[in-house]
Request: fold
Amino acid sequence: MLFLAGSIVRAQALPEPTRVISSNTHVVPVYRGFEAMAPLVERRPDTLHIINFWATWCAPCVKELPYFEELTRERGDRPLKVVLVSLDFRQQLETRLLPFLKDRDITSSVVVLDDPDANSWIDRVDPSWSGAIPGTLFLGKGTRLFREQTFTRNELHSLVDSLLERTP
Reply:
């Protein structure tokens, strides 16, 4: 079964979650353990998928989020999907994450990865990843690129434009 996730405004099909948290503006799937959401990090030939690992408590993550939102809002006519993978703490999902999404009018798809044992799964995302966030995985036709960095607007948009040229 597929589950619709993200904000009410912009939904996207995702693997079935372990549970769901919601507010009047957002429905967010929660994946208990990396294995539950592993299909998100598999290459897709038809669309450029941008999977950003972040948390509300990470200042560099929060700083770059508007740039990912611009991609979601401004490139809707392109084969592009942005998924924001929150690594927020389980006990703060309803009290911190959901209000954060509403306050910042996040329309990209958001999922929660609830797996405190990062050492068991970060290499599956990318062997070069130290586990520091933000970290972003770009998947598309002939593309599997990981960046452990905070993007500026121009860096992110330039990289995405170059990757979209490779995607049908």
Notes: The chain is about 30% helix and 30% strand. Residues 1-12 have pLDDT under 50 and may be disordered.
